[in-house]
Design brief:
211 residues; mainly beta; two-stranded antiparallel ribbon; elongated
Length: 211
């Protein structure tokens, strides 16, 4: 899991933290798939990681913020498969796909930042609490059929929150230390294995309808 907002204005791979997901998908057609899932993960970012030309950028150096969160997300949506990766008469056993939907999340957050003092001797303030809200998920991935039942899935997706309060800074920090120019995002990227349940297995060709 990852995050982009005031404390991390750009997506940074090294900010990825451990997360996991359980999901269920049902084929509505060859291309369209309904999905639902539950995801849990942690976020931890710090201003000291935001650098330009090797130095911490001025706003980050002055604010000295650290943001932590534990996120529980429930998501419903759809996948769109570009190829029929379950047509075993073809060599193509994989497909790229995109997905979207709606996500509800619970986040337990804590943000520490310099409220007074100097950069050398900061006086820190800590704010936080719990947030329950919705986000707009969007992402892409690749599915590969290892066998008729086992699938390998690689997915990356962002969740656009509807506001700028996810990291607490726009609420608590002085205006000069908070960027209110856009909504906060959090991300889930992962590698998954799924098992396919069949209603009917055709004797030849396509394996038949799938749940």
């Amino acid at each position: 899991m990852n995050y982009r907002g005031e404390v991390s204005p750009r997506y940074r791979v090294l900010n990825n933290r451990l997360a996991g997901t359980a999901f269920y998908k049902k084929d509505l057609s060859t291309a369209l798939v309904a999905r639902g899932g539950l995801t849990l993960g942690g976020i931890r970012v710090a201003d000291e990681q935001v650098r330009r030309d090797g130095d911490v950028v001025p706003v980050a150096a002055s604010r000295q913020a650290t943001f932590r969160a534990f996120v529980v997300e429930a998501l419903v949506g759809v996948d769109y498969n570009f190829l029929d990766y379950y047509d075993f008469k073809r060599r193509t056993r994989w497909t790229p796909y995109v997905f979207t939907g709606v996500a509800g999340y619970y986040a337990s957050t804590e943000t520490a930042f310099r409220s007074r003092g100097t950069i050398a001797r900061p006086v820190m303030q800590t704010v936080g609490g719990t947030k329950v809200s919705v986000a707009l998920p969007i992402g892409l991935g690749i599915k590969y059929a290892l066998s008729r039942e086992i699938n390998l899935i690689v997915e990356a997706g962002g969740r656009r929150t509807f506001g700028d309060q996810f990291d607490n800074l726009s609420e608590a920090a002085p205006p000069e230390l908070a960027d209110t120019g856009g909504p906060d995002w959090y991300f889930y990227n992962g590698v998954s294995v799924s098992y396919t349940f069949y209603k009917i297995i055709c004797p030849t060709g396509h394996p038949g309808p799938r749940k």
